[in-house]
C-alpha cells in the first residue's frame, strides 16, 4: 500500500466551482473545493487527509498569533490541452519549505506527505486548474504553530495545509518600483532566505509608503549600506545592462528562487550572457543615465517574469526603454511553454501528476 492509498478523502457536498468565472481570475482570491491537512502532535506528523476547504478553529493562545511561527511555499499547477496536469520543479518547493521550517524551529514535513499529498489533492480538484493563457492553479503549502502558550518558545503542535486557488496574473498593468534607501526586508543571520510569514508582513509598511509615493513595489537593498540591489517585492530581480543579464547571488538575505535559477539556465541555453554578482545602485543609476540600462524584471512563481517599466531612487525617476523583443518576454515564453507542456522539457523540470 502506498501513502496515496492511505490518504483519507472527504469530498465536499457543495462544490463552489460553478460560482467561479474562469475567464476573469484575479490572483489568490477564490479557493478550490478541497485542501490537504496534516497535524503534528506528540512529535510526529499524522497521515494527511483531504477535506473540504474550510475555516479552522484555533485557541487564542496558539503561538502563530503571538510569535508568527509560520512558513509557506508558492507553486503552480498547469493543465495542457489534453488535460494532463503538471507541476514545475515541485521537489524544490518541498526542500525549500523544510529549509524554511528548520530556520523557524518548525518540524520538517516528510517529503512523501508533501509530494503524494499534493498530487492526490490536484487529482481531486483537477477541474479547478485553469487552462486559459496566463492562468494556472496557484498552490499554497504552509505550516504554522497551532500549539498553545504565551511562552516565547517553539510550539508543540503544528498544522500543515496545502490549499489551492485558480489564479490569473499577479500584477495587472505597469510595475514601477522604488529603490529602497531606508527599510530592509532581511539582514545577515536573519530569516530572509526563508519563506517565513513575518518576512512579508515586514514588507507591507515600506511597500505602502512606496505606493503612496506613486510606485507599485519596492526594490530591496541590503540592510547595511542600501547600496546593493537584492530583491523586488516578493520576487528575485534581474537587471539587463547592455546585453548582460545580472542578478544578485543568493545569501542569508535573498530567497533562492526557483524561477530565478530556471531563468539563469534558460538564458544560458539561449546564449544570453548572465552574471551572478552583487549589483550596486550606483551602477544601475549610471547605466540608466548613459542609456546602457535596458531592462529590469522581477521573477517569481506568482509573478512569473514581470517587467519593470520604471524606477525611482532618491528624487530621480527613470523610465526603462521600450524594446521590440526584450529578454523578459523571450525568457517568459520559454519558461511558461515548459511549464504548460508546450515546449520540450530539456532540463527535466516538469512533473506529471
Ligand atoms: N523572493 C521572494 C522574497 C519571494 O517571496 C519569492 C516567491 O516565492 C521569490 C523571490 C521567487 O521565488 P520562486 O521563483 O521560487 O517563486
Ligand atoms: C510566490 O511567488 O509564489 C510567492 O510566494 C510570492 C507571494 C508573496 C505571492
Question: Which features characterize this protein?
Answer:
D-amino Acid Aminotransferase, Chain A, domain 1, binds 2-OXO-4-methylpentanoic acid, 353 residues, 25% helix, D-amino Acid Aminotransferase, Chain A, domain 2, alpha+beta, binds pyridoxal-5'-phosphate, single chain, ten-stranded mixed sheet
Question: Any overview of this molecule?
Answer:
This protein has 353 residues and is of the alpha+beta class. The protein has two domains: 3-167, 2-Layer Sandwich (D-amino Acid Aminotransferase, Chain A, domain 1), CATH 3.30.470.10; 176-339, D-amino Acid Aminotransferase, Chain A, domain 2. The protein is 25% helix and 29% strand. The protein contains eight helices and 21 strands. It has helices at residues 3-6, 63-67, 90-103, 111-124, 197-212, 258-270, 281-290, 327-339, and strands at residues 8-9, 34-41, 44-45, 49-52, 70-72, 75-79, 85-88, 136-145, 158-167, 176-179, 217-221, 228-232, 235-241, 244-247, 273-276, 279-280, 293-300, 304-307, 310-313, 316-319, 350-352. Strands 10, 11, 12, 13, 14, 15, 16, 17, 18, 19 and 20 form an eleven-stranded mixed β-sheet that branches. Strands 1, 2, 3, 4, 5, 6, 7, 8, 9 and 21 form a ten-stranded mixed β-sheet that branches. A hairpin with a 2-residue loop joins β13 (235-241) and β14 (244-247). The model has no long low-confidence stretch (mean pLDDT 96). Bound molecules: pyridoxal-5'-phosphate (PLP) and 2-OXO-4-methylpentanoic acid. Pyridoxal-5'-phosphate (PLP) is lined by residues 74, 231, 234-236, 255, 257-260, 300-301.
